[in-house]
Amino acid sequence: MSSGVGMGLITRQIAKMYKFNNYQYSVVIGLLLSDAWIIYNKRSVNPRIGFKQKTKNKKQKTKNKKQTKKKSFAKFEYLFSVFTILSPFCNSVPALVTNIRNNKKNIALNFCTRSLPCIKDIHLLFYEDNKKKIPQDIYNLLDPIALTHWICGDGSVSKKGLLLCTDSYSIEDVVRLVNVLIIRYNLICTIRLHRENQYRIYISERSLNSLKKLVLPYMVNSMKYKICH
Questions:
Q1: What CATH architecture does domain 134-220 belong to?
Q2: What is the pTM of this model?
Q3: Which residue, 5, 54, 130, 190, is the most exposed by fewest CB within 10 angstroms?
């Protein structure tokens, strides 16, 4: 499918024809494990996917401005790479958005897909009572492509290993994710308490070489710093 940007409204019959191929589906799974979301618009019977990447807020202090700019560029480059993959399902290009939080102005780049029937089943996998959860079948869903995009969204360099920021998930969901990493991919992982009722997954430096073989073929260059350190 070619890009759907600028096509305008589509009929219900055409909307039913939209389907993710296997690669796009895995990308969406990885995005939803990290920063993406699915939402129903008030006027639509079908949900849509949204994805956003933030830069630092204007009042945020930093010791290394060059490094901060580099990471902001990496986030924006990553978002555009994802948009390229999902552009057949979008009607508009990514846009800059701003909001005020804690008296600070935040700048971000985001895009949304159309509201489509093919997103309904994915919504059922990831949401219960409007709260995001980890699907029961995450063992099969978390293939190397999905793992790559999960790391791009939630991965953070921690000493010589990798930290996955799973703060929004319950301990049961985090355990489910760790089991996949250990059993399917034979990675050395531990669960760390970040704050009260917030848990993160640490992948040991001893597993980074194995992890690189899995995800580097699918990772944009600007995000490779997360595992190549």
A1: Roll (3.10)
A2: 0.90
A3: 130
